[in-house]
Amino acid sequence: MSVLRKTLPAVVLAATTVLGAGGGARAIAPEADVAHHGHVTLWKGRIGVLLASGNHGPSPLPGATVRLTFSAPPAPGQELPAACLWGGDRVVLCGTGPLRASGAVRELALELRTAGEPEELTVEVDTAWNGGASDRNPKNNEHEVLVLATGDPYVF
């Protein structure tokens, strides 16, 4: 049996997977590696977040949305930066803008008042949307940070 006959079923299977059983083309999701890093501070009823989002590649992204979830609620009625919106009473969603593959990071600074003066809080950082790309390394965009009300930066 020739090599062609042995490999032909694998080629047909691969083509069926990419093109679909009906022969129509399906879009294949780009692969990207979104990463979020930065630090969080808590002092006298204020939360400060410095967030740097990047893409380690290989495909560029038109943008991503990072979700910040706070264990203690921020005070209601606060304005957010233009790239952000409230996703609930403890959730802030922020757009990163375009993320080039292996390109420069996009930074965002956020300062919020808390409801009361908690001695500590937890901030969860994760990607809510990444443009439909596959990400084989989600660990660098998912963080949970315990922040004490010391004014010190807690790095993630």
Describe the structure using short key phrases:
single chain, 156 residues, mainly beta, five-stranded antiparallel β-sheet, four-stranded antiparallel β-sheet, 11% helix, disordered N terminus
Detailed description of the structure:
The protein is mainly beta. It is built from 1 helix and 9 strands; from the N terminus they run αβββββββββ. It has one helix at residues 3-19; strands at residues 34-43, 46-55, 65-70, 84-86, 91-95, 106-113, 120-129, 143-148, 154-155. The strands form 2 sheets. A 5-stranded antiparallel β-sheet has the order 4-5-3-7-8, with no helix packed on it. A 4-stranded antiparallel β-sheet has the order 6-2-1-9, with no helix packed on it. Strand 4 and strand 5 form a beta hairpin. The termini are far apart.
Write the layout of secondary structure elements.
Layout: H1 3-19, E1 34-43, E2 46-55, E3 65-70, E4 84-86, E5 91-95, E6 106-113, E7 120-129, E8 143-148, E9 154-155
Antiparallel strand pairs: 1-2, 1-9, 2-6, 3-5, 3-7, 4-5, 7-8
Q: Categorize the overall geometry.
A: elongated
Cα distance, first to last residue?
A: 57 Å
By oligomeric state, this entry counts as: single chain
Reported for the largest beta sheet, the result is: 5 strands, antiparallel
Query: What is the beta-strand fraction?
Result: 35-45%
Specify the helix fraction band. Answer: 10-25%
Mean pLDDT: 87
Unreliable runs: 1-20
User: Order of strands side by side in the largest beta sheet?
Assistant: 4-5-3-7-8
Radius of gyration: 21 Å
Count of alpha/pi helices: 1
Instruction: Encode the helix/strand succession as letters.
Output: HEEEEEEEEE
Question: How many individual β-strands?
Answer: 9
Structural class label: mainly beta
